[in-house]
Design brief:
The chain is of the alpha+beta class. The chain has 3 helices and 6 strands. The strands form 2 sheets. It has a 3-stranded antiparallel β-sheet, with no helix packed on it. The model has no long low-confidence stretch (mean pLDDT about 95).
């Protein structure tokens, strides 16, 4: 295995603190969202996970389309990450929505499923987290 890149980010203060990458590129306050009885108004772990996942997944989607010589029109990938509670247990679930107006639904569905199979984030959560895929044309 060859490591291509390693990102290291430090947190101080948990959900009411800050995150900072060691290279200084990322520096954000994090706050508990209002829905979780927090102050809100800042990033939170679920938001940061969704941002990273959507970027990685969209890269996988574009790579799959390119390999298949499919022209992917203007499109967007939205990732929703939910923090759920079942008794005393907390867990994440999510949804990937691929929006590509004017594209064939079945072709987009195939691309979305293949991207889910090859995306490193999708591989990381496989078997650990429910993730639904939706395509909108």
């Amino acid at each position: 295995m060859e490591t291509l890149y390693t990102a290291t980010v430090s947190n101080v203060g948990g959900r009411e603190g800050d995150v900072k990458s060691l290279d200084g590129i990322l520096e954000l306050d994090v706050k508990r969202p209002v829905e979780m009885h927090g102050q809100g108004g800042a990033a939170n772990p679920e938001m940061l996970f969704a941002a990273a996942y959507s970027s990685c997944y969209n890269g996988a989607l574009m790579a799959v389309a390119e390999r298949r010589k499919i022209i992917l029109p203007d499109h967007a990938v939205e990732v929703s990450i939910s923090l759920n509670k079942d008794g005393n247990n907390m867990f994440l679930s999510g949804k990937i929505t691929v929006k590509a107006p004017h594209m064939d639904h079945d072709q987009l569905q195939q691309l979305a499923e293949t991207a889910h199979a090859v995306c490193p984030y999708s591989k990381a959560i496989k078997g650990n987290m429910e993730m639904k895929i939706e395509v909108l044309v």
